[in-house]
Amino acid sequence: MPAEFLRIHPQTPEERKILHVVEVLRNGGVIIYPTDTVYGLGCDIHNTRAVERVARIKGIKPQKNDFSFICYDLSHIADYARVGNQTFKLMKRVLPGPFTFILEASGKVPRILNATKKTVGIRVPDHPIPRSIVRELGNPIITTSIKADDDILEYPTDPEEIFEQFQHQVDLVIDGGYGGNVPSTIVSTAGDDFEIVRQGLGELVM
Length: 206
Fold this sequence. Notes:
The protein is an alpha/beta fold and about 210 residues long. It is built from 6 helices and 11 strands.
């Protein structure tokens, strides 16, 4: 059965629609949703089968995943990662925003997400839809970018084209308007030292 296609207002998400998305996630669903950078593919981080489905869609083994996840705010981050003082100050300055921070994982990160590594990627996107979802869900969701079936455009931006490409692989595609085609900037932290692993949309001014 094809996925559901759900339009949600990108600035003022309708509560009943957010509640519906959360219900899909709690039932083990896999969704595609907008962020402040590119459209993301994800699920509830605590649903192992759903995480395995996301890995299959990406064409990787679940234990070899390099998934990040979305938190609602900085207080949420502290539940899943250890953050030094300088790192916290930097994150407080640039988040919500188009950054992924690689942090030392805490014991609360599900084993399937850090089975072979001790770090975790965390995002707080500057976009009301994913933040509303995780706030209502009560815990983070997976975020991994989707790629286009296109030799020219790496990341698909049109929700209807995204639906056409993924409708038989996921349970729900959110239309939050056209997405971007530049991914987040990835910042690795070791203690309070910072390294830009991938320059994306976010400009980090130290």
